[in-house]
Amino acid sequence: MKHFLALILVVALALSLAACGDNNHAVLPSIPSDGSDVLETDFQKNMNQSTSTNIYCLCKTTDGYYFQFDCMLYFIDRETGDSTILCGKPDCNHVISEFNKSCNAYVYTNLLSYYNGKIYYTNSDAVLENGNYVRKGERLFSMNLDGTEHDAVQSLDFIPDGDTNNFITEPIIHRGYVYFSYSGALYTAKLGADIENATLIYGKQKTDDGSHVVDSKEQYYELWADGDLVYFMVKNIQQGNGTYKDTLFCYDPQSNQSKQIWQVPEKSEVGTWDTTGVSVSQWYISDGYIYFYLCGNDIWCTELSTEKTTKLIDLDLEAGVAAFSDKYITVINKQYNDFMSFTGELGIAGGDYLYIYDYNGKLIQEISLGQIYQDHKTAFACHIAFCDAGKVYVYVDATVSGIYSAAYSSNTVQEHYLYAVDIASGTLGDVVWSYYKKY
Ligand SMILES: [Zn+2]
Predict the structure, then answer these.
(1) What separation in Å is there between the alpha carbon of 60 and the centre of ligand 1?
(2) Could you read off the pLDDT of 26-74 as tens digits, one per residue?
(3) For tag attachment on the chain, is the N or C end more exposed, with fewer CB atoms within 10 Å?
């Protein structure tokens, strides 16, 4: 069986050489398209660029933006800029406990996706059945745009809670299929279908005893889709010299074939960047090009069919974070900060300037975020949540954490804001969402 699978893979790789990344573009990169209009069944590129670990599940509809924060769903009206908790239950206090999760806004997800009139998310809860809690594993759910009618769509675990991988892959939904990882292997299944019939896209799957336990190398994925093609960046691929490298593959759902099309460049090709040199900080694919940022380095662009790499924007920042959208490349500066060092490495914090470029590499705006730090004295970091329809949504973390003190629970004050920074005028704009919680 293994040999058979391997043969299929080899044939698939050979056949797919012409299937992916082919295009006849000129040397100049084209302007990526996503549009402020909302496609009904497509992966939303603009909404999958968050550089904050507090707000990273986002999606949009024609009416507004949805996001998860602290296991709750919020909605920002595009027209008015007003935000609301997405509950709608008249007498709900939106407080979640172990025994009461009935608030409509409660989610605990790695995915937020708009698809065909519904919002999709995942959850890994246990469910009370006949007096006992039954583990259901990771499942996909849908709900109405007003937060009502949460329905289980399909399981994303072959065995409930059986996923052996410690890293999280955020699933995506694109043109009728869900793409997800289980124990280090990547799969796709029809939206709503039983995943026992899922297609294995990448990674090894042992099916000898039917339990789908895989030979896990702790690989995980960053998923993407553009037009008919699906892309997956495999993280943690071990190289011959023992280091790890991000490697990009393209999957064609029509032919069920995938192939490697890009790998994070060598330092000798592009110069040094940050501390790892093996992982791409942020990336964006459109029309056969990958645009990517290497923290502490520059913005680059590779034409995937020719593998020709060009420097798009020369940046002179000690550190930074980029977010891409259909029209703009936004970069926020960062400073290395050993106070943030949880993992033993220097963390990056701050962020007091936004640089907005177009896809010709031209600087459009340079916007100071200094006023944010003046308005909120405890603010210590700004992050780009997303950029859409002429605005950059900047998330501000002003939490005063008691983590370094003995009395964590009584010392922490959570304070968070979302600013809608206007690109055309270069102004900070309004606070469209705020959150305050004292412990
Ligand atoms: Zn509620």
Answers:
(1) 21
(2) 344 445 555 457 999 999 999 999 988 899 999 999 999 999 999 999 9
(3) N
Amino acid identity of residue 239, one-letter, is Q
Least confident of 206-220, 281-295, 390-404: 206-220
CA of 93 to the centre of ligand 1 (A): 6
Domain coordinates of the chain in residue numbers? 32-90+102-206+213-262
Please give the Cα distance from 3 to 22 (Å, whole number): 30
Task: Report how far ligand 1's centroid is from the alpha carbon of 95 (Å).
Answer: 7
What single-letter DSSP state applies at residue 307? T
Distance, CA 16 to ligand 1 centroid (Å)? 48
Determine the distance separating the centroid of ligand 1 and the alpha carbon of 262, expressed in angstroms. 45
410 phi and psi angles, rounded to 5 deg: -100, -5
**Residue 414 CA, ligand 1 centroid: distance in Å:** 20
Cβ-count burial of 116 within 10 angstroms (0-12 exposed, 13-18 middle, 19+ buried)?
Answer: exposed
CATH 2.120.10, domain 32-90+102-206+213-262, yes or no: yes
For residue 133, report the distance from its CA to the centre of ligand 1, in Å: 23
Identify residues whose C-beta is under 5 A from ligand 1, the ion. 87, 92, 94, 103
Could you tell me which residues come within 8 angstroms of residue 103 by beta carbon, excluding any fewer than 6 positions away?
A: 72, 87, 89, 92, 94, 95, 96
Q: Which segments of 117-160 does DSSP mark as H helices, in order?
A: none
